[in-house]
Design a protein that fits this description.
This protein is mainly alpha-helical and 189 residues long. The protein has one domain. It contains six helices and no strands. Helix 2 runs antiparallel to helix 3. It is extended and about 65 Å long. 25% of the residues are buried. The N terminus is likely disordered.
């Protein structure tokens, strides 16, 4: 009779839900670090966006030569060059890139607040519409706070929001892992 390891299944892998717990802990730790050092996290995001733009530009240029028609080839190539130059700019000037992303974030949040208000006005008669209004007000305040304090908000906005997102992702994965392990225990019992 083989002795089973309660931490692994019969194939040597982790018990269902353990990966959720492992990744949850990683997300929680990274989220705390990002919140504690939002400037560093923001710069990391700006650099990541720079690399994504560079690779996106390369893909567009490669696609340009595989696409049909001269007009399409020219537009794809120009778009690829634009992406590539923007990515290189973000990589060589990450502070300016971070400032640009922060300003864009403020604009997106304020546009979202306007759309939330429209949704509230259209659905006022529904019982939960007050939550749309609350979300609208909070989103507008956050977007306005970032906008009014720009460029100094670049030091905290992106990194803090990424950190909060990672923290919430970590906690949700931790809870999901707990539920999966509980279900797995019930299934084997």
């Amino acid at each position: 009779m083989a002795i089973s390891n309660p931490r692994s299944d019969s194939h040597g892998g982790l018990v269902p839900g353990r990966w959720f717990t492992v990744t949850a802990i990683a997300f929680i730790v990274l989220g705390i670090v990002a919140i504690a050092m939002p400037w560093v996290a923001g710069l990391a995001v700006a650099i990541l966006v720079g690399w994504l733009l560079v690779f996106g530009g390369i893909v567009h240029v490669v696609e340009a030569f595989g696409s049909g028609g001269t007009g399409r080839t020219i537009w794809q190539a120009l778009l690829g060059v634009l992406y590539f130059i923007g990515g290189i700019y973000f990589l060589t000037h990450p502070l300016i890139g971070l400032g640009s992303l922060t300003l864009l974030l403020a604009a997106v949040l304020m546009a979202e607040a306007v759309l939330e208000f429209v949704a509230y006005v259209r659905g006022r008669s529904e019982g939960a519409s007050v939550w749309l209004l609350a979300n609208c007000i909070i989103t507008l305040l956050l977007g306005g706070l970032i906008w009014v304090n720009w460029p100094s908000s670049a030091a905290w906005a992106i990194g803090t929001l990424v950190g909060v997102n990672m923290l919430m992702t970590g906690f949700s994965r931790l809870m999901l892992g707990t539920v999966v392990r509980s279900l797995a225990r019930r299934a084997t019992a």
